[in-house]
Amino acid sequence: MSGASRRSAPGKPLVTSADAPYSSGGNRSSTLVDAAKAFGYEAAVAGQNSPHSADRWKTIAGLWESAIARLNNIPIDDPGYGEAQTLLAQYQSNLGTVRENAAKEEASARALTSANNKSTRMLAQNLERLERNQIASLLQDIINDLEAVQPNTTSYARATEMLKSANQKLAQLQ
Fold first, then answer.
1. Are residues 94 and 40 in contact, defined by beta-carbon separation less than 8 angstroms?
2. Which of 19, 30, 99, 147 lies 20 to 30 Å (CA to CA) from residue 128?
3. Per-residue pLDDT tens digits for 61-99
4. What's the CATH class of domain 5-105?
């Protein structure tokens, strides 16, 4: 099997041909490597077609962690140690990518929630009592939150719609 890696899409973990499960023999290290590859394969498959919720990213991270745990159990003097270390490097990199995606998802969801809350509070106010610059300030605060929502997250499409609307309203005030 080839150890060459490819990136399936931006923001997605590396997937290698070595990630596909197979049976390579009867010794303990090959069993652990096979198990790790099975977890890695499932993690890679689960990570496709993003964006995913933060909970889904955490589940995917758990699969990578399970694969890594198995590879870490292979002793240095074992014949499968070299292959395990190669996979370990790939899987740790993939886990890092998944954790970054989970953090982006959480931060984007918080930013969208904040923008929604501010928008609701703004609409509940009597805007006729406010000066134009006060309304513009409220809108700008909402825009700042919406601009914090990152691409390739589940919040991005909604944030983009709201951002367009908020920018139009801000332009009307000026």
1. yes
2. 147
3. 999 999 999 999 999 999 999 999 999 999 999 999 999
4. mainly alpha
